[in-house]
Design a protein that fits this description.
By secondary structure, the protein is an alpha+beta fold. It has helices spanning about 5-15, 245-260, 280-290, 300-305, 335-345; strands spanning about 20, 45-50, 60-65, 70-75, 75-80, 85-90, 100-105, 110-115, 125-130, 135-140, 145, 145, 150, 155-160, 165-170, 175-180, 185, 190-200, 205, 210, 215-220, 225, 235-240, 265-270, 295, 315-320, 325-330. It is globular, with a radius of gyration of 20 Å.
Length: about 350
Amino acid sequence: MSRDSFSSGMQGFKSFSIILIIIVFCFAGCKVEEFPGSAGEPEGSLAIAVSDTLDESVEGAAIIIDGVETPERSPAIIHGISEGEHQLVIRQFGFWNDTTQVGITGGDTTSVVATLHVVPPNMTGQLTVESSPAGAFLLLNGRKHFVNDSPALTPGTFDLPWGRYNLSVHLPGYLTASPILPEIEIFPGESQSLEFTLNSSEIGRSAGNSPYPFTLENISGDSISVSDLTGYVVLINFWYAACAPCIAEFPGIENVYRKYSMDGFRVLAINPMRPDNREAVIQKQDELDMTFQLLLDWDQHVTRDLYVVGEFPQNFLIDRTGKLHDVRGGVEESELDEMVSELLQTENGQ
C-alpha cells in the first residue's frame, strides 16, 4: 500500500478514535491564573491534561502548538499564547498524535483534556541511526530513547511507532556538526536512516567548550538532563532566593523565554539549595510567575564542583551544536534577546 493511500485511509480511523474534550477545569496541584495581555497583541494561557482510553493519566507528553514543540510536558500550563485559533498536537511515544483546534482568549485560561490511543504493534517503521564517531545516545523529542530499559546508542536500527520525531544524538565531549535537530516522520512498514557528524570538543566551563553534563531534579521531582536538550539553545542560570541581582534579572529571562520557547529556546535555572529549600524555590516561582525549568542542586555538585560558581547570578548560554556560546554573570534582557535570536536564526540556516 502506498504512503498516500495508507495515510488517507487512516485519517478516518484517527478522526473516529481520537477525541479531545475541551472543558473548564483546574489541575490538582497546578496553579492556573490569568495571563495579562501585552500592550500589543492580547495573550492567554492554555492548561493541558492528557489521559489514555482507560482514563489513566499520561504524563510527559509533548505539546506542539502551531507546528512548534513547546518546552512543557503534560500536564502543563502554557502562558503567552496569542489570542485566536491555534492548532494543538499532543504527542507521546507509542500513542497516536492527538490534533485539535483550540481558541485562546486574551487574559483567560483555556483548559483542555486530551485522550490518546495506543498505536497498534503493526503500525511501526524502522529508523537506522549512525554517528561519527559511534556510541552516541539517541534523543527523540528532547529525551533519551530506551530499548529494553537500556539507552539506545549509535549505530542501531530501532522500531518506532508511526509519528513525527525531532532527532538528535549526544556524545560527551562532542558537538553536533550536522544535522541540527532534524524532524522526520516514521510510516508503518517503511525504513529511514540518518547519520550525524560530531566534532570533538573539550569539556569545560568557558566559551567554546562542551558544557559539563548533568542531571538534576526539578521542583516536580522529574529528572532533567542538559544533554537531552542537544539541538536547542539553552541558558543555564545559577541563582538563590536572597540574591537580589538574581531575582532582578528573572523577569527579563522569563520574557525572552516566552518569546522564543516555541522556536527552540530552553532555560534551566539551578538553585544550590543552600540556604534555600524546595518551598523557597516554589515561592519565588509563584511570586515571579516563572514558567521555565527550576532545578534543585541538593549536594551543590553541579554548582560548586562542575561549574565552580562563586558569585551569583551566573549564566551559561549553549548553542544548538552543544557548545558554550557565552559565559557571564548577570544578563540584561536586551542582550539575551539578541544572542538567542541570532543563535536560533543561524542554526536554522537563515
